[in-house]
Maltose/maltodextrin transport system permease protein
Amino acid sequence: MYTTNASRGLPRHRSRHPGERYARWAARALVAALVVGLMWLVVAFHLNGQWMFALLFLVLGAALAVVFTRRSLMSHRYIFPAVAGLGVFVIFPLVYTFGISFSNYSSSNLLSEERVRAQLLSRTYQEEGAAFGFSLHREGELVRLYLEAEGDPAGEGTKRFASPPLNLANQEERRIGVQPTDRPPAAEPLAMREVIAARGALQGLRLVTPEGLELRMSGLRHFAPMLDRYEARDDGSLFDRRDDRVLTPDQQIGFFVTDDGETITPGWPVAVGLDNYTRIFADPDIRGPFLQIFVWTFAFAGLTVLFTLAVGFVLAALLQWDQLRGKAIYRTLLILPYAVPAFISILIFKGMFNQHFGEVNMILDSLFGIRPEWFTDPWLARTMLLVVNTWLGYPYMLLLCMGLIQSIPRDLFEASAVDGGGPLTNLFRITLPLIIRPLTPLLIAAFAFNFNNFVLIALLTGGNPDILGASTPAGTTDLLVSYTYRIAFQDAGQNFGLAAAIATLIFLLVAGLSLLNLRLSRVKV
């Protein structure tokens, strides 16, 4: 009969190998270090005002600590890294994008209201009629700054000031007192190129006159009194001293607004509800291009699947022909485009379709005397995209069809031959009906992939030619995903909120296709 250490009265931990104990301690130390690191990220993001990221890492750290400290959750430790990665890189971006779609987040509304207020309060302006011309005069290894007023509105004598000897190698911001003087220094003034070289140090100087007037550099030839433009008031508004007007914070649009309705940039993000979704369908300058791109996206994805399936199926059927010799060589050659990185093939095709020097137009010109404008005509550009994408996608369909055709029992073809059936009868009555059912989920997956085929559009056409009259960057060859990218990162306003709303719609469409794919695959959801 076998006995255990517990039955002998020995401590349980002695039954473990020393290496196992060390591994356990190392794993615990690693988990503790990860938890500490995540908590540090929580504090760092919280201090920077990024509460969503702070909440994300707080939840992640708490989940890590709970899963790896409770014995009852031991079985979940192995799947935890995958679930954590799913949450960080999939679920969180989706939730974050969905949240942005209900805001006016853009390049003009990036900062918080507090930072916008602080930025406006830091702005200055030059007092009119009080500029001082300046010159630099060398005194040994140091330099003396000489100031002379360019006009005295009061009619008094010209005001002149001189600074103590300065070390212009020091570019830190500093306050220097200047004293009245009767004449400039005896040394010759430095040349303009030397003034330009010392501009960094001069911009850091704050010159203070005996009357308490502070002068700052306002050009390569002038120092002038620089006054704070805005003054904060108790009710939260700002007073513009230069233009004599009041700026009121408008929480509906996220900007400071003047008395006459002018908005002052920058602004801050505010919730706008369903405004971004409403703009997509209500604003004619957005609705028209959006619907055009929406229809083209479905047509592009559907036609790509149709063409690649047709080419791949026909080639796979030909490769199953018994009388065909050298099948291995043909398979290798036909599948070879699948092994070449897509971006290389796309760039090669971009050169081949060049309107002036491309091989395609050279051949068409020599044969038919025509040179199509592939990149400027909308329909030709779309045709070019379908041709290139068919070339890139048919090897995948070829592999699928070859595998499915080989699984068809040969008895069916023999029976068809007895009944007098030919190759076309076998193709449309036996082969195609038997492979289309298992192929359907894969076709839907291919449709979803081409629905978001950003790389092809970005590298081949860039979405061009543009749609005329659109208020956002939109092209006739744009897909919804490239259209979203252009709104978010290529538009002058970088409207992230509108782009997030379109991205949310894309997600719902692709999610619907995925659910349909699972249903057709007979996977219970």
In short: The CA atoms of residues 42 and 57 lie 6 Å apart. The first helix runs from residue 18 to 47. Residues 111-123+231-273 form a domain with the MalF N-terminal region-like fold (CATH 3.10.650.10).
